[in-house]
What we know:
This protein is an all-beta fold. 2% of the residues lie in helices and 36% in strands.
Amino acid sequence: MNHPLLENVLLTGRWQVSPQAITASAPGVMVQFAATTKELSFDLEGEARYRLDIDGKETEQFTIDARETHKVKVQGDGVHQFRLIKVSESNPGKINLYGIDLGKGGKFGPKPKASNRRIEFIGDSYSVGYGNMANGPEDGTVFEKTDASWPTDTRRTFRLTP
């Protein structure tokens, strides 16, 4: 099975691909691509929080509750590098990515190359980082305060405590 986006995007993590959608349930999965565009939109479904990086910098975090199109304005000319990271668990179930629209005149750049490195963490809330963005036990909900992209985030230090 193939999805049209696979010609242009690199998937990182565990994904299931069908002609209709690219599906995941685990936190920390990523979609990476290069594009020349002034705007883009993600057609997403399922409850999850996402982080969008443009050119290696976090530009926003957003939450999707059902099937929605999330629109983004892009600053600057030329080819940009995009990384969409699912930073939360999906309770319940999974998320679907149906497509990425680059807007009028937008076009995909070269597909990113996969790294030769392979590390996979299989575990529980310690390895996913449940609540790792909270300042204490009363600071928000686990859904709001989990960021599975923490290894790429230098704002916090992840530490296991007995």
